[in-house]
Structures are given as structure tokens and as C-alpha cells.
Here is the input.
Amino acid sequence: MNETHWQERLVRLAAAGLERRMRVVEGAVGPIVATPDGDKLLFCSNDYLGLAAHPALRSALCEGASRWGAGAAASRLVSGNTGAHDRLEKRLASFMGAPRAVLFPSGYQANVGALTALTDAGDAIFSDALAHASIVDGCRLARAEVHVFRHRDAAHLGGLLAACRAPGMRLVVTDAVFSMDGDVAPLAEIADAAEEHGALVYVDEAHALGVMGPGGRGLTASVGLADRIAVRMGTLGKSLGLAGAFVALGENAADLLLSRARSLLYTTAAPAALAEAALAAVDLVEAGDDLRAALARNVDLFRALAAKSHLPVLDSTTAIQPVMVGDAAKAARVSRDLWNAGVFVQAMRPPTVPEGTSRLRVTLTASHAPGHIEALVDALARALRGPEGKA
Ligand SMILES: Cc1ncc(COP(=O)(O)O)c(C=O)c1O
Here is the structure.
């Protein structure tokens, strides 16, 4: 087999410090994970509330598999839709205070499916410059025209909306908490700008669900805007500790997804056992004020220790605490040094982040202990100084 083309591309990636390799984990997710290289302190999962290995979710998954079997065996629109999926959709809709919720097998599929199904040629989508890749790809696949507004800049959004001549509907899309920077969208200003120009708003709550708002209902709920946001996407694979996603929205928009969202129609349903576990996860999240408080304490501790050690952290108050490096190859080197020191933090490099802004994406969870965070900051300070003791 001739692989020359692909080999050349890989060599170019490696030369730019952009080659990627997967790490292997050999046990349940927690503050410490087993790996073939020994135990590592884990600081790059999205398990913000520490639910991924929770006993209630493990047993819901096992009991679900006993009742429903392992796989759904078809798309939900064929025969893969079970009572468990239906109950979960109803629970998520009432939890989010929305008329309906529609489940997808992943957040990536939810964004791609919803953005393409809810817009048409003649419409216009307005997306934040640092929107998640799944939003970017949804915009690329949509037939609507796409406008990108400067990151968190509602005034720029307003200008683009005012100048837009598309004859159809306008949809503004933003992450609630940005996955690589950990900063928060100015939702009230975005909603104001959108309403002034007759646009609807779509918020990706992936990193806000579970950790923000009353009962973990997300950023929109925390700023009291649920009535003004037409579409909210939430993931089950982050704070809820499982996998999958949902879109919370109105009756007509939900029915449109069932008829048009290709990433829902043309993919196998998630197992019913997962839906059973997600029902248990929503209960834990709703009752999880103590977990949210523990997470907030851990974020505060990390930020205090990082400031003391002069780590180049961004100005984020969320569980996502990027430590900036700049150069992609250096970020990969720092991540390797951390691994060798027993700390698992991934480097984020282009195209995941803009050129020249490679970073270590540190994430904190409710289940980290203060000692874990002290060890992290210590290891970060040493790894950033490098083998010669200089940055
Ligand atoms: C903001 C954002 N949206 C969507 C997704 C995709 O979610 P999932 O991992 O369930 O596909 C992610 C996570 O990767 C994310 O960070």
C-alpha cells in the first residue's frame, strides 16, 4: 500500500509540533487515573462534578444493560428509540424549563445536527470567533450564510446583524463557557443585540451545565435568560459523567430536528442503558450544590497557588484554567514533562486554539483534594521552567 501522501502530511505536522497521539487510561476516571506508565494525577477531564465513576451511575448503567441489553441496534427514527430515551428527554426538558428536549448521541452531533436542521439557504448564522469545533462544523455544513463576530463582542455582533441583508431568519450561536479559554459569554448583551435585530439565540451549555445556575441548569439559567434563549445544547459527557447530549428548545424546533437533523436520523441511537444512567445523573446534578461548592473551592485554590507561583494563567473563573505557553512544540514538551512527573494535562495546539496560543488546558473537578492541586502547581512551575531551569 502506498502511504507516501499521508506520511508526508504527518511529517509536516510533526515538524510544526502539531502531531497528536492518544494517551491510554486503564481505570475509572477520578483525580488519580491508572495508566500503563503508572498512576497519574488527572487534570484534563471534563468530569467537573466527579460523577463519571459515581456508584449510582455505575449501577444505573449495569441495571439498564440488564433490562435493555447492550445496544439500541438502530437509529432512534427506526427502532432504536426506547422508553428510557423518551423519559430522559422529558426529564431534561423539565429540568431545563423548556417545552422539549431532543437527545443526540454526542454534543458534536447535536451542534452539527441542530445548526443544519434549524437553518436554511437565505438564513444567516452569527457565531463567536472562538466557538467550539462542532459549532464551526455545523456552520460549515449549514446552507445559511455565516458571519463570525469577535470573541465575546456583542457590539460587533450588533453591527454584523445590522448590516446583514439575508432575507431569512437570523440565528446567533455562542458557547456559554468557552472550552479552551474558560471564559463566559456575555449572554445578556448578546440577547439584547439579537432581539434588537429580530435574531434568535442558540447557546452551547456544554461546560456550564451542571456547574452553573440553580441546580446546575447552566449559564442561561444562572443569568435568568431562559425565556429569551431559543435553543440550548447540553452535553451528558462532561458534568453528568456519561456520554451524549441534548438540545432543549420549543415544540416546532424539536419536531424539525426529528425530521431534519441528519446526525440524529442517520446514526445509531445511544444505548438505552446510557439514558437510564443519565436519568440518575440529572438527579445527582440537581442535588449537587455541595459538589459545585467543592469545585468552586478547588478553582479558587488553584488560582491562588498559580498566582503565587506566577503561572501564566488566563483570567478564567471556571473549572477550565488554561496555562498559556504560546509555542506548540513547547506546549507538547511541557505536557510530556508533566506526564513524566505523574501529572496528566493535555497541551492544546492549533487548530484547536489560534496560532501562537498553545496552552495546557488544566481542568479542575469537585473530587480533587487540596494536595492534588498543590502537586499540580508545583509540577507546572517546574515543567514550565524546563530542563535548563529557564522558560
Ligand atoms: C463547547 C463544546 N460543545 C460541544 C462539545 C461536544 O460534545 P461531545 O464531547 O459530547 O461530542 C464539546 C466537547 O467536546 C464542547 O467543548
